[in-house]
Amino acid sequence: MAGKIVNIIEKTNYNFDQVGTPTQLATAFLPVGYRIRTLEYTQATLVLRIHDGSIDSGSLQFGLYPDGYLDATTYFLGITPLHFQTITSSTAIPSALIGGTSAWYSEYLSVGLLATTPAAPNLRATVSVDVCLRNADETVIAEPPPVLFATLPERLRTRNPRLNELAKVFKSLGLDVNSVEFSVKDLPEGFAAQAQSGREIALSPKLLASRSPDDVMAVIAHELTHIRQIRSLGFEKAAARAASEQRSHGKSGMRVVPSELRDMRIRDIDPVDKRFTLEQLGSRVADAVRESTGAQASSSRRPRSD
Description:
Strand content: 25-35%
């Protein structure tokens, strides 16, 4: 049987400023809302939302009570609540208090309010209350897993069925690929893709039109490595380091993967390892992805990415 949500109290203001006296503590109890028939259910959750209020001391306690219903005019509530939520001076406003019970034996449940008011009261709150009912054996339908590379153009997702493997590679490098956004835009001549910030990769229209799935995977892997580098170093420091490495190694030299790096396993690579250039690290990851697809790894024939 499906569960249901019962709105017991619409948004209502309760003001107990005048209940107490100058010399003594006072309490007030009253049933609120209406009875709920619960024979079909085994679990009840009380949802108390505090919209507004002012509480210097004292408390407002909303509870789920067993109700021995007999007629339409009298409440036969149990003395002790099955579950309750309490609003005090330390309760955050606005907020929601949620909790429940699976232990009751009456046909009905009701919601009761117990106000405990100090001698110098300032006790008022605007609240709304729901009761959620369900059965313990109800089938819970799990949400489908998120789509990997959700912002990648659909054409590339359908042409690259091994994108899940790419996601695993970058998980080992500390990057959630679903935190990266992809866009398609014109790029400088010769660039297939470019990491433009710590969360966006721009893809050239030519990459969508003409590259093989293996090349596309390698290009994306290269740029994802740059995303990981930017997040570690910050955009300005990553750009400064890349410029310094280009001056030291030249445009071609900064991309050639040295044997020491090529012999390392992907899970052992630090994407910002200072022994290598940022481009060498990106190329190594791209080559590893290309190798995993069965294609021949060669940095020299990789479409240029930045």
